[in-house]
Specification:
By secondary structure, the chain is an all-alpha fold. The protein has five helices and no strands.
Length: about 90
């Protein structure tokens, strides 16, 4: 019984650590990443793959890539819209 409790506690701890790493820590971090994405806005075109974007922007994940790509297709790729996409 003690081992089961210990395993649950360890799993909860690992999930807590992982959850903290996934989130952006501050508004400054969101602004920095939004500016970096805007700097590379020309990469978010139908002819550019996720892997080539990932080579330039190492921290990007598929969800963020997809959000930015959709903004680009709708011609709404602004720093403000990029910042808002991090909050949703």
């Amino acid at each position: 019984m003690l081992y089961k409790i210990l395993i649950v506690v360890i799993l909860l701890y690992l999930l807590t650590i992982n959850d903290k790493n996934e989130k952006f820590q501050s508004e400054a971090d969101i602004k920095k990443k939004s500016n970096e994405l805007f700097k590379f806005k020309n990469m978010f075109k139908p002819s550019t793959s996720y892997s080539s974007v990932k080579k330039k922007i190492s921290w990007i994940d598929p969800v963020i890539y997809d959000n930015v790509y959709k903004l680009s297709l709708r011609e709404k790729l602004t720093i403000s819209n990029l910042e808002n996409s991090f909050y949703t």
